[in-house]
Design goal:
Length: about 750
């Protein structure tokens, strides 16, 4: 009968019908609900509040899209974050095993390896967890530039340099997405501080924007095509990035050919239809009043249904790729033992040896004195959405003990008791965003230090720092080393040195700290960053010499905070509650500033010691005259007596014609394989015109100016071992782009 046939007719189904037909079958109510997430429930987790489950699944995930079952559209689940999958450790149904994700080292540690193969491998491991824990998209990586050492989220980010940020992010994304799950590169863009992050207006020149703040995203997006991009909270030159058509549609979608999905950061921005219209396809995590506002905008004609359909199309294009859509039967059992090994090797390879007088490391003894709260309460990761809730944790003390180090157990017990007491006295954590600051350093009497010096061969002191989203770091309590910490370092050094014994400091830090005030007191300094769940094992690997350090700084360590080029403008004005922040250092961020203006630093960009030594041989260049591409080849040899890996860095000094040029800029890097003593490896770099181009604001174009270019190859931005030059005969206009995103306020930028 016709009536029955009509009621049985199924509406178009996603995957079977075309996406256009599926959209056409949606009612307006379905549409305006679909461009927002399902909202965020907060429930009580083991350590305070956590994001709730998504319909009984994936406890701790950050959000989900709306399902429309009648059209065959499933919900897609998204979860944080850059250091591992942020879900809650729980047991589901009849499965009696507690499931938990692997906590990898923080983003800065990833980048400090300068090893894109290893980052890809860690991405694969993390992506497997995304898939097997029932998540579709992980909200990572964080690719903002580390503009200032006080940014509270620096630990999630990679570098002060866009090439490092972009290449590390690309490797991470490719690794994760090889599991057929998605990523969300964030926070697009110019989200370089947490102070007033929901309203701050970053005032940046077009050149600094293109060359520094957008460049890393551009590299990563072009090399790895992340499934999604997350816009940021802040304003950029007067307009919220999440409502910024020029940024999201013109630059990202048109100029960079990005055809994935853009989502907002959680509860970002104010004008919801404006966000959708700008090219922000999905409003996250979804607020109850959004559909009404969107409908109002459609009724008033300020937002069109055609534009809404484009947002929906991009959401559906994402959904059809997801495990949720293919109804993947996730196991809740990824290969955690294998992944913990990856986490451990990344942690050790991300550690940076800053100082090693008279071979204080590796330790030639097993009898050590272990000092500093963070040795026993090691900070494995930062807080906020970047925190990973693993139950598998090896702090420094435990890792060293496992590796056979003998430590004074009375001392260990007093540290542990002290830390537990101090922590128990703290008020309960009330919000996911509440940072957990380290406990004030325990005092150790000189008499006890003397006793320890008599009974051990060397002292290892750990200094810890933690941070998280929602607030920035402070100079006094985060950047500077406290009085208690300095006295511990000073007293230990005096007493141990008198006994002919060395002292090494491990910096278990989220971001840069001052080293200048105390570095002369000690024999060795190792930055461990926030090393993830296998922290202690990774530290033991380095201090025992099982692994030679090969991490390098991806940020410059200044002599003093005041030397940082953005020190005067961070976090903005007015001081009480900054509304605007002027990026008046322009393109001179990090080493581009210090090296150009000959500012001495504590440790330069790219720096890091090894237990062995390397020599870079004279490079060959495919041509002395640049036309389209150049190949630069060199060989690196391990000239020391132990195995190790080295990072070869290629910088270019460009001639200065119409544009200001930094002294040199990183254009490529490579990490060697593990080279045995005496072994060599050949390294090839390719340079094309866009690698060499600077952004010419006048022409709104990427331009290579004519003249002599010098390639500088070394193992830090200062330790250049080889140079070779080539000539560009005439001006090359590489790409003309849209003249958009200009500051609306007067900005006086630093120039040479
Ligand atoms: C953070 C994002 C995160 C999101 C979801 C926001 O507060 O800025 O990085 O992905 O929350 O947890």
């Amino acid at each position: 009968m016709p009536g029955i046939a009509f009621s049985q007719k199924q509406p178009p189904q996603l995957g079977k019908a075309s996406i256009k037909n599926v959209i056409a079958a949606m009612s307006l109510d379905e549409k305006v609900n679909f461009v927002k997430g399902i909202g965020m429930k907060v429930s009580e987790g083991a350590n305070g509040p956590v994001a709730g489950s998504i319909n009984g699944k994936v406890m701790g995930a950050a959000g989900s899209t709306e399902a429309i079952p009648r059209l065959g559209i499933p919900a897609v689940i998204v979860a944080d974050g850059p250091a591992g999958l942020r879900i809650e450790p729980v047991k589901y149904g009849n499965d009696s095993t507690l499931i938990y994700p692997t906590a990898f080292p923080c983003g800065t540690a990833f980048a400090s390896t300068w090893n894109t193969d290893l980052v890809d491998k860690a991405g694969r491991a993390m992506g497997q967890e995304v898939l097997e824990f029932g998540v579709d998209v992980i909200l990572a990586p964080g690719a903002n530039i580390q503009r200032n050492p006080l940014c509270g989220r620096n630990f999630e980010y990679y570098s002060e340099d866009p090439v490092v940020s972009g290449l590390i992010a690309a490797a991470f994304i490719n690794g994760i997405q090889s599991n057929q799950v998605g990523t969300s590169i964030k926070h697009f863009a110019v989200n370089n501080q947490e102070t007033n992050r929901n309203a701050i207006d970053a005032i940046v020149s077009q050149r600094a924007l293109r060359e520094i703040y957008l460049k890393g995203f551009e590299i990563a997006i072009k090399k790895s095509n992340p499934w999604t991009v997350m816009s940021s909270y802040n304003k950029l030159n007067g307009i919220y990035t999440s409502e910024n058509f020029d940024l999201l549609s013109t630059v990202l979608k048109k100029e960079w050919n990005y055809n994935g999905l853009v989502m907002t950061d959680w509860y970002a921005g104010k004008n919801y239809p404006g966000q959708l219209k700008a090219g922000n396809d999905l409003l996250m995590p979804g607020r109850a009043n959004e559909p009404t506002k969107i409908k109002e905008a459609i009724d008033s004609g300020s937002f069109s249904q055609e534009d809404l359909d484009k947002n929906i199309e991009r959401i559906l294009n994402l959904i059809v790729k997801t495990p949720a859509f293919s109804n993947y039967k996730y196991s809740n059992h990824p290969d955690l033992p294998a992944n913990s090994k990856v986490s451990r090797s990344l942690a050790s390879e991300g550690m940076i040896l800053l100082k090693n007088n008279n071979h204080s490391l590796p330790f030639q003894t097993k009898k050590i004195t272990l000092l500093g709260n963070a040795s026993y309460d090691t900070i494995l990761g930062g807080t906020g959405s970047g925190e990973v809730n693993t139950t598998q944790k090896v702090n420094f003390y435990e890792g060293l003990k496992k590796a056979g180090y003998q430590m004074d157990e009375q001392l260990s017990s007093s540290y542990i008791a002290f830390i537990n007491r101090e922590k128990a006295a703290r008020p309960k954590r009330l919000s996911i965003l509440e940072a957990i600051k380290p406990v004030e350093e325990m005092y150790v009497e000189n008499k006890q230090l003397q006793n320890l010096a008599n009974n051990s061969d060397v002292a290892l002191i750990t200094i810890g720092r933690s941070a998280g989203e929602g607030s920035d770091r402070s100079i006094e309590t985060d950047y500077l080393i406290s009085e208690n910490e300095i006295s511990l370092i000073r007293n230990t050094s005096e007493i141990f040195h008198k006994n002919g014994k060395k002292v090494v400091v491990a910096l278990n830090i989220d971001a840069l700290v001052d080293v200048v005030k105390w570095r002369d007191l000690v024999d060795g300094i190792l930055i461990t960053w926030l090393p993830g769940q296998q922290a202690g094992d990774a530290l033991a690997d380095i201090i025992s010499g099982k692994i030679s350090p090969s991490g390098k700084l991806t940020q410059t360590m200044p002599l003093a905070y005041g030397d940082v080029p953005s020190a005067d403008s961070f976090p903005g004005i007015p001081e009480e509650r900054p509304k605007e922040t002027y990026y008046n250092e322009g393109i001179y961020v990090g080493y581009r500033y210090y090296n150009t203006f000959n500012k001495p630093v504590a440790y330069e960009f790219g720096y890091g010691l090894s237990y062995t030594t390397f020599k870079i041989q004279k490079p060959t260049i495919s041509s002395k005259n640049f036309s389209k591409e150049l190949r630069i080849s060199t060989t690196i040899k391990n000239t020391g007596i132990t195995s190790g890996k080295e990072v070869i860095q290629l910088y270019v000094s460009a001639p200065e014609k119409a544009m200001d040029k930094p002294e040199s800029e990183l254009k490529g890097f490579a990490k060697t394989q593990l080279l045995k003593a005496g072994a060599s490896e050949k390294i090839d770099f390719m340079l094309n015109a866009s690698d060499l181009a600077s952004f010419d604001t006048e022409r709104s174009a990427w331009v290579v100016e004519p003249g002599t270019y010098t390639i500088k190859i070394g193992n830090s931005s200062k330790n250049i071992q080889q140079t070779v030059s080539f000539i560009v005969n005439q001006d090359i206009l590489v790409e003309k782009v849209n003249n958009i995103l200009a500051p609306q306020k007067a900005l006086v930028e630093l120039k040479k």
